[in-house]
């Protein structure tokens, strides 16, 4: 890796790198979208708050363990898929992963884990609909009982250039795809997250023309790929709310924003569907969004990432970003 491809922030410091500046850029964009000064006044002070609580200081201790997260029921029986049993770096600790999240419905900081506890997950339904022969509405127990649950250790790479390694529990998307039996006209799938502006609490993030609910999409062939996964759990337990309970998408060769949380609807469609970040800023957040070190984000390099960990403090380790986040052997043929 050469320093010439790195933005000034990276050159200034090994450690106090771009989380905040990238973050502020995203925030600035949202402000621009919202426009009026009244809207600006209601935006959360996300940069300040995230500095204070989960700042980039390498030595800062993270808060004590999270009861809501650690006391969730275990998911059993649990086998780890041998193909995805380890990666070339340590698993990020649960303490860090459950307190450093993106979930914009609950606000614009990394520290939304407490606010996300208001997400109502009882009697959750996931509607599978659209161009399929077998439309069906599942509840979470149906999903867990119908599709055998397994564990997979995956790299996770956010478009903001931080990364983790997470031990998901869930099932391959392909199983649900097969059960739905799409018609030949179905070419894409749209995934919709839960949204209720009375419950989600990110003030300002609900004003203006932001394209809620959060939605994502895949080509059918991407959904059928071995790697594409629905997580219903993490760290051997049910998924905590801040990670997108009770079920979220995990597509590890793509940037993290492709992994919509708290899915309520899976819709098989003929045309490329609208998605949240792509609708907001199409030239910065593509529909495909494969992890690619050669293709910089318009405002920062993607050649290097800050791996969160390895211990239980919010520390960063610089790592070269891998094409397809290291999963080229599984997915490169989709893009040949
Ligand atoms: N509904 C919804 N899903 C979402 C997001 C969001 O704001 N809302 N953020 C995305 C982004 S940018 C990332 S990096 C991951 C973060 O997942 P994690 O907090 O479980 O690590 O969730 C993705 N899924
Ligand atoms: Mo992200």
Describe the structure.
The protein has 336 residues and is of the alpha+beta class. Helices cover 22% and strands 21% of the residues. It has helices at 8-12, 19-34, 37-42, 46-54, 67-70, 94-97, 140-146, 173-180, 220-224, 276-280, 328-331; strands at residues 79-80, 125-130, 136-139, 150-157, 162-172, 188-193, 215-219, 229-234, 237-238, 248-250, 263-269, 304-308, 316-320. Strands 1, 4, 5, 8, 9, 10, 12 and 13 form an eight-stranded mixed β-sheet that branches. It has a five-stranded mixed β-sheet with strand order 3-2-11-6-7. A hairpin with a 7-residue loop joins strand 12 (304-308) and strand 13 (316-320). Helix 2 runs antiparallel to helix 4 (46-54). The longest helix has 16 residues, at 19-34. It is globular, with a radius of gyration of 19 Å. The structure holds the ligand Nc1nc2c(c(=O)[nH]1)N[C@H]1C(S)=C(S)[C@@H](COP(=O)(O)O)O[C@H]1N2 and molybdenum atom.
């Amino acid at each position: 890796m050469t320093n010439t491809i790195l933005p000034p922030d990276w050159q200034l410091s090994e450690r106090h790198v771009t989380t905040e500046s990238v973050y502020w850029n995203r925030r600035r964009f949202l402000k621009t979208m919202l426009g009026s000064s009244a809207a600006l006044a209601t935006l959360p002070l996300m940069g300040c708050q995230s500095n204070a609580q989960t700042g980039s200081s390498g030595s800062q201790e993270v808060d004590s363990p999270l009861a809501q997260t650690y006391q969730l029921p275990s998911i059993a029986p649990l086998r780890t898929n041998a193909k995805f049993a380890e990666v070339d770096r340590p698993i990020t600790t649960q303490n860090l992963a459950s307190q450093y999240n993106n979930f914009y419905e609950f606000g614009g900081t990394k520290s939304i884990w407490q606010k996300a506890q208001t997400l109502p997950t009882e009697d959750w339904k996931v509607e599978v609909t659209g161009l399929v022969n077998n439309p069906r509405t599942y509840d979470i127990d149906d999903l867990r009982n119908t599709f055998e649950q397994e564990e997979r250790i995956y790299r996770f790479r956010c478009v903001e250039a931080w990364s983790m390694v997470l031990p998901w529990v869930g099932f391959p998307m392909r199983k649900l795809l097969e059960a739905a039996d799409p018609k030949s006209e179905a070419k894409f799938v749209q995934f919709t997250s839960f949204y209720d502006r009375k419950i989600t609490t990110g003030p300002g993030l609900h004003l203006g023309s932001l394209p809620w609910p959060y939605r994502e999409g895949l080509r059918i062939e991407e959904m059928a790929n071995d790697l594409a996964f629905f997580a219903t759990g993490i760290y051997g337990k049910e998924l905590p709310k801040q990670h997108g309970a009770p079920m979220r998408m995990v597509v590890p060769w793509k940037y993290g924003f492709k992994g919509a949380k708290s899915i309520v609807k899976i819709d098989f469609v003929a045309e490329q569907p609208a998605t949240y970040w792509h609708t907001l800023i199409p030239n910065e957040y593509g529909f495909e969004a494969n992890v690619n070190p050669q293709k910089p984000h318009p405002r920062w390099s993607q050649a290097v990432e800050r791996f969160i960990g390895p211990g239980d403090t919010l520390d960063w380790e610089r790592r070269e970003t891998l094409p397809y986040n290291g999963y080229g052997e599984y997915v490169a043929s989709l893009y040949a």
